[in-house]
Design brief:
mainly alpha; Four Helix Bundle (Hemerythrin (Met), subunit A); 2 strands; 4% strand
Length: 186
């Protein structure tokens, strides 16, 4: 099994791949996140990476930003991606960091924070017709964390209610369903 750091970086790489394929006409497309189009969702992802960067650097947790998305969302994503990668490279695997959930070891922080680039990367890919496959290992680890939270995710208002899945569903299908997303058909 890979480390939380590896899984987190793979999720960021996947978002990079999706962003690289977004065409100018697609920025206004609807996403599976009802309040955000492609531009706004990528802005949310970039802001989330700025929040993770702050925690990795020992800065107090910062609130998310609201307001219009950056006029060049792809560039904003690349900047945020570079900053979080640099901050992550400067932190040891045994670091304990301040987070909104209290002090957490780096692996716990990353295994919690990965839900954003993992699921929103899928949301972006779904919106623009890109590949919607999730890293199987990261999906499995994230699924365990989401299951442990139970109904708490839906109660935040940031996730839709869980959807049912079949007995033979993959980790990706179960994770998507638990976060209120309908898997994309073949």
């Amino acid at each position: 099994m890979s480390t939380a750091r590896d899984r987190y970086l793979r999720a960021l790489d996947r978002v990079d791949d999706v962003v690289a394929g977004i065409r100018p006409a697609q920025w206004g497309l609807a996403t599976p996140c009802p309040d955000w189009d492609v531009r706004e969702l990528l802005g949310h992802l970039a802001d989330g990476q700025a929040q993770v960067t702050a925690m990795l650097r020992g800065a107090p947790p910062r609130p998310g930003t609201a307001g219009p998305a950056d006029p060049d969302p792809a560039a904003a994503w690349r900047r945020a991606r570079q900053e979080v990668a640099a901050a992550l490279a400067a932190v040891t695997d045994d670091a304990v960091l301040r987070t909104p959930l209290g002090e957490l070891p780096l692996p716990a922080l990353l295994d919690t924070a990965v839900i954003e680039p993992l699921l929103h990367g899928w949301d972006l890919a779904t919106a623009v017709g890109g590949a919607t496959d999730l890293d199987p290992e990261t999906a499995e680890v994230t699924l365990r964390g989401v299951r442990a939270l139970g109904e708490q995710l839906a109660q935040t208002g940031m996730y839709a209610a869980a959807l049912p899945t079949d007995e033979g569903s993959t980790a990706q299908e179960r994770l998507l369903a638990l976060t209120g997303r309908r898997p994309v058909g073949p």
